[in-house]
Design goal:
Layout lengths: L1 E3 L4 E5 L6 E6 L3 H19 L3 H17 L1 H12 L3 H27 L2 E3 L7 E9 L2 E5 L7 H12 L3 E5 L6 H12 L7 E3 L4 H10 L2 E5 L2 H14 L3 E4 L4 E5 L5 H13 L9 E7 H16 L18 H16 L3 E4 L15 E4 L6 H4 L6 E7 L2 H8 L4 E2 L3 E3 L3 H10 L6 E2 L13 E2 L1 E2 L2 E2 L1 E2 L1 H6 L2 E9 L14 H15 L10
Parallel strand pairs: 6-7, 6-9, 7-8, 9-10, 11-12, 11-17, 12-15, 14-15, 17-18
Antiparallel strand pairs: 1-2, 2-3, 4-5, 5-23, 10-21, 13-14, 16-20, 19-22
Helix pairs in contact: 1-7, 2-4, 2-6, 3-4, 3-6, 4-5, 9-10
Bound molecules: nicotinamide-adenine-dinucleotide.
Nicotinamide-adenine-dinucleotide (NAD) binds next to helix 7 and helix 8.
Length: 504
Amino acid sequence: MAEATSHEKITVCSPATGEKIGEMNVSTADEVRMAAARARIAQKAWEGFDFKTRARVLYRFRDLLIDHKEDIADTLTAESGKPRGEAYGNELFYVCDAIGFWAKSAARYLKPQRIRPHLLKSKKIFSIHSPLGVVGIISPWNFPLVLTIGEAVPALMAGNAVLIKPSELTPLTACLGVELALEAGMPANLLQTVPGYGVTAEALIDCADMISFTGSVETGKRVARRAAERLIPVSLELGGKDPMIVLKDADLERAANACVWGALMNSGQACISIERVYVEEPVYGDFTDRVVKKVRALRQGASQDDVELGSMTSEKQLAIVESQVRQAVMKGSKLLTGGRRLPHSHGLYFEPTVMIDVDHEMEIMREETFGPVIPIMKVKDLDEALRLANDSRYGLGSSVFTRDARKGWEVAEKLHGGSVCINDSLVNFIIPDAPMGGIKDSGLGRRHGAEGIRKYCHQKTILKDRLGLKSEFNWFPTSKRKVAILKNGLNLLFRSGWKRISWK
Ligand code: NAD
């Protein structure tokens, strides 16, 4: 929780207790411009280092992240309300693994690639990648380390400087990360934070060479419009309403466990959380009973080691969750467990919730909930499940559970979205080798895989003549004979069958 004061400060409060835990200055537009100017100077030197040298700095940074894991977990849990297990198991794990992955893979993805032309064999062609310059990262509050420092790692390995505009709700973790990077020997000004609200983020769009944005659809569209004014590239990782389909031949125990984890990890505040579940009629009752039993067994609390669920992070998001649940209940949906703010708590806790008798007239099945809610809908068959799953303005992740490998693949091909897990959920986010992103309102571009680092680069094609002739056939001067040869050459090259040798 954070609010602006008249002194242009961000006050950071614990969402679990409401207590103030930190304060920092908002970066003004001028300060953002100055930070970008400093970053540009640092980037020039960094670009000159080879991949191994950049990797060495990042490995030292990783060592420091591990040495300071307790401090990072303290800061993360305090400002986000998530349990310590998630601070270590999701956030630190992801960032440390990402450092190793990009340190090793950057050269492979970015080395010059030989292109062998299909026709003009006398030309030697290469595609090369060079850094963009200053990358601006604008982040949400749900993964304060992963979506700031974690996102910066491939951009840095590609030779860029990075300015991070962390969420105003959770800026402390990113600032701590940047301090540790400096301590690890990262060149001064190469990686900086510019804390603030929307105005600061807009100033960053106005001076960066590329924007990597993660956040809501509405803000994402605003970012794209502003970036379009300067024609700078953007990648947009936006919201989702990820469907899960459970077919009648599924391993129900695995499906139920995957559902509870995939929907409630980080209190459901993950972009690829399971947000709606479609279950084939014959197994609907059994599956739902299992899910309810498992959800009732979950423990909820503040930043402890032995709880599965923490508080939510944003009061605004909690109000959306409450409103969607209330509206669904008013329209006839039934709560099997949960459904309200945790009683007798000052924090932003919402009980883990399972609802049935839901339909697509309800926001809970159409709009992003981003909270600990599992709405389950009975469907008569796979066709109905697919039709409903694809009836969405979003297209981020999805999952299908079946023992039939061929059917699983078929469903995966038919689901609209950027990723599908067969008999699994969420795990694709922590596999940096696998591209991840959305279609429709869920965004543009990909993180991870080749695109996850090439998006931070200019691609350039270099062509070299191999023969060294004094002139080329199609160069000046033109003659009637050349034109006749060109005309007939079209027949020879592009006509089908015997007509190739026709002179007409
Ligand atoms: P948000 O869009 O409100 O804010 C995201 C960031 O944008 C913040 O840093 C904010 O200060 C900044 N911002 C605000 N106004 C801006 C403007 N005019 N121009 C530029 N930037 C501006 O999102 P949020 O509430 O912080 O995060 C929740 C959303 O993020 C959810 O919708 C969720 O789905 C999405 N998300 C997506 C992914 C993904 O990978 N697809 C991951 C995590 C979160």
